[in-house]
Amino acid sequence: MKLLKQLYIQVIIGVILGIIVGYFFPSLNNVGKMIGESYINLIKMLIAPLIFFTITAGIAGTGNLKKAGRIGGKAIIYFEIISTFALILGVVVCNLVKPGEGISMSNFSTANLSTIVEKGKEVNWSDFFLHIIPSNVVDSFAKGDILQVLLFSVLFGIGLSKMGSVGKSLTHNFDKINQVLFAILNMITLLSPIGAFGGMLYTTGKFGFATLLILGKLMLTFYATAAFFIFVVLGLIMRYYKLNIFKLLSYIKEEILIVVGSSSSESVLPNLMSKLENAGCSPTVVGLVIPTGYSFNLDGTAIYLSMSIMFIAQAFNIHLDFMQQLSIIGILLLTSKGAGGITGSGFVVLTSTLAAINYIPLEGLAILIGVDRFMSQARSITNMIGNTVATVVIAKNENLIDTEVYKKIVEKKEYNNDIIFEETTVISVLVPESEEKIKSTI
After folding, report:
1. Per DSSP, what are the bridge partners of residue 429?
2. What is the spatial distance between Cα 158 and Cα 142, in angstroms, rounded to a whole number?
3. Which helix (H) or strand (E) holds 98?
4. In whole angstroms, how far apart are CA 378 and each of 34, 219, 308, 325, 337?
5. How many CB atoms lie within 10 A of CB 392?
6. How far is CA 387 from CA 50, 235, 248, 286, 289, in A?
7. Which of 120, 185, 362, 388 pairs as cysteine with 352 (C-beta 3.0–4.6 A)?
8. How far lies 376's CA from each of 15, 43, 90, 142, 388, in Å?
9. Dihedral angle at the C-alpha atoms of 207, 209, 211, 217, nearest 10 degrees?
10. How far is CA 281 from CA 274, 285, 371, 387, in A?
11. Residue 422 host element (H or E)
């Protein structure tokens, strides 16, 4: 019974029960949607204030604006390189496996496409980048616009750092407020199993499994590609910095399971920030990299978009030459960066990209409607893991990670006179840039 007290076990039970209830009682899918969305809204309620207070206190506490700028610059470069590789990987895998061959459009209805297509055509990607600068910061907080809150937080932190003793006093108060917000987060996290249950009940009841039989090859190819990206690509990056990807995944297993249930990586954003700080990563790095990554480092979405376009082309027997495939990657480099700020982002961005390409029929989207929710789970997990790895890597690269704390908390190891030994109970002292915090993990 002790095992049932573990949060990740409770979330697994919630996911399984959600699948069972959704399969046998599909009419309850609206109840599942209400439960799942209520949980996600509880989390979203904390995202904007957590980002603001974490980043502001982190930048003001460092007293080194060049360092903050360097962290942000490295993060953007890292995001561009890794997400570009994810796009190329999706195209290459589709060329090798050809999951779209043999798919007949007669099995799919295009009746529900009109709204999606119109919404995708309305997206203006130059407006997205202009949208980063808020005209009304109160409205940005009210809507939970991550990028706008991020920009305002950075500017506020810079302003605080220039105010001397007054700034230090405010920074100390912000740290206290942050502790209150994380205490609220800990209470909400206890509801994760219920949120996962509701999310899976809605997904299973609403969409069922029938379409998976027809599009099984696409699903397997996408999941296998996402797994390859996580364990091989991100794993090698972690290995370069002498870190273990499997240990890190074990450390965030609860968050992975919550994303499986909710199909939203945003549902665990505050949890990730808290866990990475507890693992020894600098609050400044966590505060800058995680929120920015949720718009600019969507590795799972990048794989999904490139594979979906190639899949639709193959389903319509459209041969894409090398230059056409290169142009698809080039367009996706722009359009995929806006996915995080759009509701139903995967489909909307995919529609917008197809409209820009103009030689692959938009009707092909009908093939993906039935499995998009299931693919959403894999891409959300990949997005979340990609941003977690990015934070750890950039913190390591900047020497802004307490390696001893990281080894204790994440890898369950302790260094003592160059001898590594395992321990079951970890009590760590985390010393971020602004003040000393003591965390205990049992």
Report:
1. 438
2. 23
3. none
4. 22, 10, 14, 24, 18
5. 26
6. 17, 13, 12, 10, 8
7. 120
8. 15, 19, 15, 26, 18
9. 130
10. 10, 7, 37, 13
11. strand 419-422
Token readout for 369 is: 């409607």
Look up residue 440 and give its DSSP letter: E
Rounded Cα distance, 26 and 19, in Å: 10
Comparing CA positions, the residue from 170, 165, 148, 179 lying closest to residue 56 is: 170
For residues 328 and 320, the answer to whether their CB atoms sit within 8 Å is: yes
Whether residue 126 contacts residue 132, with contact meaning beta carbons closer than 8 Å, is answered with no
Higher pLDDT pick, 426 / 387? 387
What is the residue-wise DSSP string for 10-26?
Answer: HHHHHHHHHHHHHHH-G
The pLDDT of residue 303: 93
Q: Are 409 and 441 in contact (CB under 8 A)?
A: yes
Write down the domain spans for the chain: 2-106+129-303+371-411
Of the listed ranges 52-66, 119-133, 162-176, the least confidently predicted one is 119-133
Q: Where are the alpha helices (DSSP H) in 29-163?
A: 29-62, 65-97, 113-121, 125-130, 137-143, 146-161
Residues 6+ apart with CB under 8 A from 31: 198, 201
DSSP string, 198-240: HHHHHHHHHH-SHHHHHSHHHHHHHHHHHHHIIIIIIHHHHHH
User: Hey, what are 25's tokens?
Assistant: 């009682």
Helix, strand or coil for residue 429?
strand
Strands 437-441 and 426-430: antiparallel
Longest Cα–Cα distance of the chain, Å, equals 70
The per-residue pLDDT for range 103-129, each reduced to its tens digit, is: 765 555 555 555 555 555 555 556 666
Q: How many residues belong to the chain?
A: 442
The C-alpha atoms of residue 372 and residue 364 are separated, in whole angstroms, by 13
Which tokens belong to 254?
């609860």
Do residues 404 and 426 touch, judged by C-beta distance below 8 A?
no
Sign of the Cα pseudo-torsion (357, 363, 367, 371, in order): positive
Average pLDDT of the residues in 245-267: 88
- Give the number of other CB atoms < 10 A from CB of residue 405: 19
- Those residues whose C-beta lies under 8 Å from the C-beta of residue 102, and which sit 6 or more positions away, are none
CATH architecture of the domain 2-106+129-303+371-411 equals Orthogonal Bundle (1.10)
d(CA 298, CA 309): 17
